[in-house]
Amino acid sequence: MDKEEKVTIRISEMDLLEIDQFLEKNVEYGSRSEFIRKAVFEFMTRGSNGRMSDGTEIKLDGSTEDTLHKAVDRGFFTSISEAISIVLNAANSEGVINDIITRKIEKKKASEDLFEEYDRRVKPANSSSYEPKSWKVR
After folding, report:
1. Spatial separation of the C-alpha atoms in residues 77 and 90, rounded to whole Å
2. Does the pLDDT value for residue 56 go beyond 60?
3. Is it the case that residue 45 has pLDDT exceeding 70?
4. Does the CA dihedral 47-50-55-58 come out positive or negative?
Protein backbone atom coordinates (compact mmCIF):
# COMPACT_ATOMS: atom_id res chain seq x y z
CA MET A 1 0.00 0.00 0.00
CA ASP A 2 1.32 3.45 -0.90
CA LYS A 3 2.33 5.73 1.91
CA GLU A 4 -0.02 8.68 2.31
CA GLU A 5 1.45 12.13 2.70
CA LYS A 6 -0.06 15.06 4.51
CA VAL A 7 -0.75 18.18 2.43
CA THR A 8 -1.74 21.50 3.94
CA ILE A 9 -4.17 23.72 2.04
CA ARG A 10 -5.82 26.99 2.90
CA ILE A 11 -9.60 27.29 2.57
CA SER A 12 -11.70 30.29 3.57
CA GLU A 13 -14.09 29.87 6.49
CA MET A 14 -17.02 30.36 4.11
CA ASP A 15 -15.82 27.61 1.75
CA LEU A 16 -15.15 25.31 4.70
CA LEU A 17 -18.67 25.95 5.99
CA GLU A 18 -20.08 24.99 2.58
CA ILE A 19 -18.01 21.80 2.56
CA ASP A 20 -19.24 20.92 6.05
CA GLN A 21 -22.87 21.56 5.06
CA PHE A 22 -22.41 19.37 1.99
CA LEU A 23 -20.87 16.61 4.11
CA GLU A 24 -23.81 16.72 6.54
CA LYS A 25 -26.14 15.87 3.63
CA ASN A 26 -23.73 13.47 1.91
CA VAL A 27 -22.25 11.27 4.62
CA GLU A 28 -20.86 8.85 2.02
CA TYR A 29 -17.99 11.31 1.51
CA GLY A 30 -16.81 10.85 5.07
CA SER A 31 -14.36 13.43 6.25
CA ARG A 32 -13.25 16.74 4.80
CA SER A 33 -10.04 15.05 3.67
CA GLU A 34 -11.90 12.28 1.85
CA PHE A 35 -14.22 14.81 0.22
CA ILE A 36 -11.32 16.99 -0.98
CA ARG A 37 -9.41 13.93 -2.23
CA LYS A 38 -12.45 12.76 -4.23
CA ALA A 39 -13.10 16.28 -5.53
CA VAL A 40 -9.52 16.62 -6.75
CA PHE A 41 -9.63 13.30 -8.61
CA GLU A 42 -13.04 14.07 -10.10
CA PHE A 43 -11.69 17.41 -11.29
CA MET A 44 -8.71 15.72 -12.92
CA THR A 45 -10.70 12.92 -14.57
CA ARG A 46 -13.79 14.80 -15.65
CA GLY A 47 -12.38 18.21 -16.38
CA SER A 48 -13.78 21.48 -15.18
CA ASN A 49 -15.78 24.50 -16.21
CA GLY A 50 -18.30 22.52 -18.22
CA ARG A 51 -15.71 20.86 -20.44
CA MET A 52 -15.78 17.25 -21.46
CA SER A 53 -12.65 15.10 -21.41
CA ASP A 54 -11.95 15.93 -25.08
CA GLY A 55 -12.11 19.67 -24.34
CA THR A 56 -15.65 20.16 -25.68
CA GLU A 57 -17.39 22.90 -23.73
CA ILE A 58 -20.93 22.26 -22.54
CA LYS A 59 -23.15 25.34 -22.68
CA LEU A 60 -26.39 25.28 -20.72
CA ASP A 61 -29.16 27.83 -20.67
CA GLY A 62 -29.59 29.68 -17.40
CA SER A 63 -32.65 27.72 -16.29
CA THR A 64 -30.97 24.35 -16.85
CA GLU A 65 -27.83 25.44 -15.07
CA ASP A 66 -29.85 26.81 -12.16
CA THR A 67 -31.81 23.55 -11.85
CA LEU A 68 -28.61 21.49 -11.79
CA HIS A 69 -27.00 23.76 -9.18
CA LYS A 70 -30.08 23.45 -6.96
CA ALA A 71 -30.03 19.66 -7.35
CA VAL A 72 -26.34 19.57 -6.37
CA ASP A 73 -26.94 21.95 -3.43
CA ARG A 74 -29.67 19.63 -2.13
CA GLY A 75 -27.43 16.58 -2.41
CA PHE A 76 -29.11 14.83 -5.36
CA PHE A 77 -25.79 14.91 -7.20
CA THR A 78 -22.24 15.37 -5.94
CA SER A 79 -21.29 17.86 -8.66
CA ILE A 80 -22.51 19.55 -11.82
CA SER A 81 -20.33 17.14 -13.79
CA GLU A 82 -22.02 14.16 -12.20
CA ALA A 83 -25.48 15.69 -12.79
CA ILE A 84 -24.78 16.31 -16.47
CA SER A 85 -23.33 12.82 -16.86
CA ILE A 86 -26.31 11.12 -15.21
CA VAL A 87 -28.87 13.20 -17.12
CA LEU A 88 -27.20 12.59 -20.49
CA ASN A 89 -26.74 8.86 -19.82
CA ALA A 90 -30.41 8.58 -18.82
CA ALA A 91 -31.47 10.56 -21.91
CA ASN A 92 -29.44 8.20 -24.07
CA SER A 93 -30.76 5.01 -22.45
CA GLU A 94 -34.37 6.25 -22.73
CA GLY A 95 -33.97 7.12 -26.41
CA VAL A 96 -34.29 10.89 -25.92
CA ILE A 97 -31.05 11.59 -27.79
CA ASN A 98 -32.16 9.42 -30.71
CA ASP A 99 -35.54 11.22 -30.75
CA ILE A 100 -33.79 14.61 -30.89
CA ILE A 101 -31.53 13.44 -33.74
CA THR A 102 -34.55 12.00 -35.61
CA ARG A 103 -36.44 15.32 -35.31
CA LYS A 104 -33.37 17.21 -36.56
CA ILE A 105 -33.11 14.85 -39.55
CA GLU A 106 -36.81 15.36 -40.30
CA LYS A 107 -36.50 19.16 -40.08
CA LYS A 108 -33.45 19.13 -42.34
CA LYS A 109 -35.26 16.93 -44.87
CA ALA A 110 -38.30 19.24 -44.76
CA SER A 111 -36.05 22.25 -45.41
CA GLU A 112 -34.33 20.47 -48.30
CA ASP A 113 -37.72 19.49 -49.77
CA LEU A 114 -38.91 23.08 -49.50
CA PHE A 115 -35.87 24.41 -51.37
CA GLU A 116 -36.12 21.68 -54.01
CA GLU A 117 -39.77 22.63 -54.54
CA TYR A 118 -38.76 26.28 -54.78
CA ASP A 119 -36.05 25.48 -57.32
CA ARG A 120 -38.49 23.37 -59.41
CA ARG A 121 -41.13 26.10 -59.50
CA VAL A 122 -38.96 29.18 -59.76
CA LYS A 123 -35.84 28.20 -61.65
CA PRO A 124 -36.55 26.76 -65.13
CA ALA A 125 -34.60 23.66 -66.12
CA ASN A 126 -31.21 24.39 -67.71
CA SER A 127 -31.50 28.10 -66.89
CA SER A 128 -28.78 30.02 -65.14
CA SER A 129 -31.07 32.79 -63.92
CA TYR A 130 -34.14 32.74 -61.73
CA GLU A 131 -37.47 33.82 -63.18
CA PRO A 132 -39.79 34.40 -60.23
CA LYS A 133 -43.18 32.70 -60.44
CA SER A 134 -45.88 32.48 -57.83
CA TRP A 135 -45.99 29.39 -55.68
CA LYS A 136 -47.48 28.35 -52.37
CA VAL A 137 -45.61 27.15 -49.33
CA ARG A 138 -47.12 23.97 -47.88
Report:
1. 14
2. yes
3. no
4. positive
